[in-house]
Amino acid sequence: MKQWRYKRLFEVLPGALSWLVIVMPIILSIVAAKFFAVYMIFFLSYWVVKAFFMSFRLIVGYRNYKRDMKIDWFAQLDELAPKKSWHDIYHLVIVPTYKEELPILESSIQSVINSDYPKDKIIYVLATEERDREQGRAHANFLIKKYKNKLGDVLTFMHPKDLPNEIIGKGPNITFTGEHMVPYFKDKNIPFENVIVTNMDADNLVDKKYLACLTFKYLMDDDPVHKSFQPLPMYFNNIWDVPMPMRLTAMGSSFWQLIVATRPSRLKNFSAHAQSLEALVQVNFWAKNTIVEDGHQYWRSYYKFNGQYDVVPLYVPIYQDAILAGDFRTTLREQYIQKKRWAWGVSDIPYVMQHTFGNKKIPFIDRWANALILWEAHITWATTSVILATSAWFPLLLNPDFRDTVLAYNFPLVYSRLLGVAWIGMVTTLIISTLLVPPHKGKKPILRIILDWILTPIVLPITNIVFSSIPAIESQTRLMLGKYLEWKVTVKSTKRSFAESNTK
Question: Where are the domains of the chain?
């Protein structure tokens, strides 16, 4: 596609707006302290209401999860009418790897083998990189030799390095693999619409119900080709092995996906997701020029199909690793890097705005609402935690004249009580986390859970700033300055107690 003339403008605007939102409280505290104090009360009131709605959606999401985890999805498939027979559906699971340890790769393929779905209908592909030629080839040969007869097929492809018009990242690898699987299914006369492709990271473990549930949802959809299917990412593989700040961050990411799953109109591809091979062929697989190929895949599909594209939530999980990278300091650094990479989704805004202006086949309200939701998500991601934690006190600190007013006397009291009400949402989160978090070595670690309850009100506001707002601000600032983020593989540890207990 030809370079859009306004691309740089929309790379600059998100970061500029976020910095304006962050700096404006300081300016208003000096020049219009009363106005700003009143505004902050209304602003916090809005977030209190929003926290209640999010808590409600978290409860709904948790109930949906518990409901779907009780369903025998394979039995549901057998009850479908003949014209919607599951017997024709194949699953292609693509797992890209770069310098992953063999135990992590083995747990991945073992989770697929343990699925409640006929093994002869599953094709597992390990997508290696030429940059890791020797280890990638050795691991692939080991997995093929050991597991080839346990699935319909186990294959491997090695993505060449330094191909033109590609960045270093996951997207070029899985696209290379997807393109090479096209003749595989053609030779077997398997229609592309009968192949569901799940793209997941090497540390991901599919729940045993995932493939059957995905098949059922796919067959029950009136237009599954124009859909993608989003399982719940749950960062549980090593949840009790990581330090508390990482555990809070991981649980927060899991909860956010539970919340968003209850609002399909706002649901986008994130991390592991599934599409039909037919859809992937039409959109030319995944993007090869962005490090956030998952979220970008939604927009590529949405515009390719002129708005006739949705994401279907699955309340069955694919389990993933929380950040654990050796010592505590390295773990903190890797957590920050991961969040910064996720926040690089802001780089989708120029692409989205180009099509928002240019694609008139999508209804005006639909395309602009989608664009504005993306803007709102990234601006609030970068600014809200910082503003709530700091900005309310600026009028008292920066404006001596304001301190002697009646409003200044009552402002801290009103603000603190509103914050107190907002803690109800945190209590809801703690209750759900206690119910949802997996056991450790067969039982819930009660002492750790009690300690988490005690420390969360202190630690969570800090982690929200350090591992949410600041990496988002950095990503937006980098985009604004043209210092584009490059791909970096997250350092992983093989210490994964939950994964080990669920892949044996």
Answer: 1-70+221-504
The pTM (predicted TM-score) of the whole model is 0.92
- The 3-state DSSP class for residue 291 equals coil
Query: CA–CA separation, 333 vs 5, rounded Å?
Result: 36
CB 225 within 8 A of CB 278: yes
Q: Work out the end-to-end distance of the chain between its first and last CA atoms, rounded to an integer number of angstroms.
A: 48
CB within 8 Å of 48: residues ≥ 6 apart: 418, 421, 422
Tokens representing residue 119 in the block? 């093994």
| pLDDT, tens digit, 9 for 90 and up, residues 470-495 | 999 999 999 999 999 998 877 777 66
Q: Which residues, 6 or more positions from 24, have their beta carbon under 8 angstroms from its beta carbon?
A: none
The answer to whether residues 282 and 238 touch, using CB atoms and an 8 Å cutoff, is no
340 close to 485: Cβ distance less than 8 angstroms: yes
DSSP symbol at 225: G
pLDDT tens, residue by residue, 191-218: 999 999 999 999 999 999 999 999 999 9
Q: How far is CA 152 from CA 144, 182, 186, 206, in A?
A: 12, 16, 16, 17
Q: Are 242 and 495 in contact (CB under 8 A)?
A: no
Locate 359 and state its tokens: 């694609």
The Cα 430–Cα 463 span in angstroms is: 15
Query: Distance between CA atoms of 64 and 74, rounded to whole angstroms?
Result: 18
Beta-carbon count within 10 A of 307 CB: 17
